[in-house]
């Protein structure tokens, strides 16, 4: 299996710098709110099912994000989990994608795996991405061609050549995938936050993440981190796609074929 990565179009450096600065500021704002309220989330209620939560924090952070982005980038529409897509989002050259609290069930319970995720994307995929990890006081940020930083320090994906003895993150993994990973002495971790699962690959902690069910706001910010850290993203057919729909594998290049074989089987 040979994964050929695609070369995305360059982006105006001024836009990249300004988007990174504003996104980082929003991530810091969100991290403070989430850290202060986790485990005692006001206005908590179930949405589609008893495990699909929304809170006042989700709504407040998304409204704040939309206000700031509308003022700073008036021509760029926003897509968010709680308030949907702006009318012009589908045909716009750029769009912001925000998940105010990814892993809301964890947040409501006070379990330390939840995040704020914000991404700027174009027709070639993620342009800028930030993920705030409030429980670890970390802000992860990346921009196309500029690499990834964790609280300002550069990071890279792992350099391992095998998934044996390593960790793989997954959200809602199938029993078959879990069995194949275990047979190869690979540890499987389910975090309950899609954004943080993908981020672990960017940080070099996990060699891969398999995400079967998600919305674009769950993955947009974190996929920018992973791609800029040197990871590869493929769709269910094994083809390169910087932000695929319907299932994705993000992995260290040397292990993508190995983990993909477990996933595809």
TrEMBL record:
<keyword id="KW-0460">Magnesium</keyword>
<keyword id="KW-0479">Metal-binding</keyword>
<protein>
    <recommendedName>
        <fullName>inositol-phosphate phosphatase</fullName>
        <ecNumber>3.1.3.25</ecNumber>
    </recommendedName>
</protein>
<dbReference type="Pfam" id="PF00459">
    <property type="entry name" value="Inositol_P"/>
</dbReference>
<dbReference type="InterPro" id="IPR020550">
    <property type="entry name" value="Inositol_monophosphatase_CS"/>
</dbReference>
<dbReference type="InterPro" id="IPR000760">
    <property type="entry name" value="Inositol_monophosphatase-like"/>
</dbReference>
